[in-house]
Amino acid sequence: MSDGVGVACRESRVGAFLNLRGDAADPGFRNVAASVTGVELPVEPCTWRRHAGHAAAYWLGPDEWLLAMQNGVGVDLESRLRDVLDPRCSVVDVSGAHVQVELSGEDAGKVLQKSSPYDFDPRNFGVGRCVQTVFAKATALVAAREADAFDIVFRRSYADYLLRWLEDAAAEYNASDGRSP
């Protein structure tokens, strides 16, 4: 990177996290969810989608997704989804339980490799991929956003530990916390 920073880490401005469960084989479910959230649910394992930078849907399992909505979006999303989805579907606001950080820079992949046994090599983990994995002795959802940029979602109860761990793991790569100019 031209500014000499090999890794930058900063907290994302996620306003709401929702856990959504439903029948992925049902196009009606997927269409309704997409019309309310603005993002199409991925059905391929270990993938995610983003719409206009304000909403993301991460595949967690064959019938489960994590929706991340940027600040100002999704304030009443849970109730709107409940109003239109089949009662057999589930939507739960898990905003208080999660934190998301953005890890970026030419050495961000190296920090990920130090953090997890998962193979984050770009040949295996390209843009649009996500995985739930062990991460610095905790668990996290890691998503490849673009070349050398990743979203990491983890439990709020691990936030202090994981942010300090990331800071230490990135120190050798001229890291920045994203707050400096």
Description:
22% of the residues lie in helices and 36% in strands. It contains 4 helices and 11 strands. A 6-stranded mixed sheet has the order 8-9-10-7-1-11, covered by helices on one side. The protein has a 5-stranded antiparallel sheet with strand order 3-4-5-2-6, covered by helices on one side. The chain is elongated. The two termini are 14 Å apart. The relative contact order is 0.22. The mean pLDDT is 89.
Oligomer: single chain
Question: What is the percent of helical residues?
Answer: 10-25%
Global geometry: elongated
Average per-residue pLDDT, rounded, comes to 89
**Number of helical segments with 4 or more residues:** 4
Query: How much of the polypeptide forms β-strand, as a percent range?
Result: 35-45%
What is the annotated CATH architecture of the largest domain?
2-Layer Sandwich
Q: What is the radius of gyration computed over CA atoms, rounded to a whole number of angstroms?
A: 17 Å
Low-confidence stretches: none
Number of strands: 11
- Identify the CATH class of the largest domain: Alpha Beta
CATH topology of the largest domain: Gyrase A, domain 2
For the biggest β-sheet, the strand order reads: 8-9-10-7-1-11
- What is the string of SSEs from the N terminus onward? EEHEEEHEEHEEEHE
Structural class: alpha+beta
Structural domain tally: 2
The H-level CATH homologous superfamily of the largest domain, spelled out, is Probable tRNA modification gtpase trme, domain 1
**Cα end-to-end separation:** 14 Å
